[in-house]
C-alpha cells in the first residue's frame, strides 16, 4: 500500500485529502496515516518529503534540494518578503485562523495591503468567515507557505518565546 500511496501523491497536482486516499485505497484513514508514516521512515534522507496541512498531504521536493531544482528548471527567486510581510505571516501562522483586525491589533498598523500581498503570493488564503458582525475573513497559511519555509507541517514552526 505504501507504493500505491507514493504513486498517487506523485501524480497528484496538489494537496490530497486523507479521506480521498482512504476511498481510493479502500482502507480506513488510520491505514492511510500508517502508510504515510511508513513512507516517511523508508524515504528518510531522500530528495522528497510529504507535507501535511490539516487533513491534506502533498509530496514535494525536500527544502535542501531547492537550489538544485531551481537551477535545473531555470527558476529565479521571486524576491524576498518584506519585514512587514514576515511579521504578518508569522502572526497568521501562529494564530490561524485569524482576521485582519486581529492581525492589526497585534501589529498596531493597517495590514490590508500586506495581507493582500501574502494572498497574491499564495502564502495565505481565506479559510472561512468569523461568525460576527460583518463576517470578516479568517486567514490561514497554505501548502505554499509550508513549501516556502521548508516545513513538513505546522508543528515544525519554532516555539514562540514566553
Characterization of the model:
The model has no long low-confidence stretch (mean pLDDT 91). This protein folds into 2 domains: 2-71, Winged helix-like DNA-binding domain superfamily/Winged helix DNA-binding domain (Arc Repressor Mutant, subunit A, Orthogonal Bundle); 83-156, Arc Repressor Mutant, subunit A (Orthogonal Bundle). Helix 1 (2-11) packs across helix 3 (29-42). A hairpin with a 2-residue loop joins strand 2 and strand 3. Helices cover 48% and strands 15% of the residues. The protein has a 3-stranded antiparallel β-sheet. A two-stranded antiparallel sheet has the order 4-5. 16% of the residues are buried. By secondary structure, the chain is an alpha+beta fold. It contains 8 helices and 5 strands. The protein is globular. The protein has helices at residues 2-11, 18-25, 29-42, 66-73, 83-95, 100-107, 112-120, 143-149; strands at residues 16-17, 48-53, 56-61, 124-129, 137-141.
Amino acid at each position: 500500500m505504501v507504493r500505491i500511496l507514493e504513486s498517487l501523491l506523485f501524480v497528484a497536482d496538489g494537496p490530497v485529502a486523507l479521506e480521498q486516499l482512504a476511498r481510493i485505497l479502500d482502507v480506513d484513514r488510520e491505514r492511510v496515516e500508517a502508510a504515510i508514516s511508513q513512507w516517511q521512515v523508508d524515504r528518510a534522507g531522500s530528495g522528497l518529503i510529504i507535507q501535511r496541512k490539516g487533513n491534506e498531504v502533498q509530496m514535494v521536493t525536500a527544502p535542501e534540494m531547492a537550489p538544485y531544482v531551481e537551477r535545473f528548471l531555470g527558476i529565479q527567486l521571486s524576491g524576498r518578503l518584506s519585514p512587514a510581510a514576515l511579521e504578518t505571516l508569522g502572526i497568521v501562522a501562529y494564530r490561524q485562523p485569524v482576521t485582519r483586525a486581529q492581525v492589526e491589533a497585534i501589529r498596531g498598523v493597517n495590514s490590508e495591503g500586506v495581507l493582500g500581498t501574502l494572498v497574491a503570493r499564495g502564502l495565505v488564503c481565506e479559510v472561512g468567515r468569523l461568525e460576527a458582525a460583518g463576517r470578516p475573513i479568517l486567514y490561514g497559511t497554505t501548502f505554499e507557505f509550508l513549501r516556502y519555509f521548508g516545513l513538513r507541517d505546522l508543528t515544525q514552526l519554532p516555539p514562540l518565546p514566553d
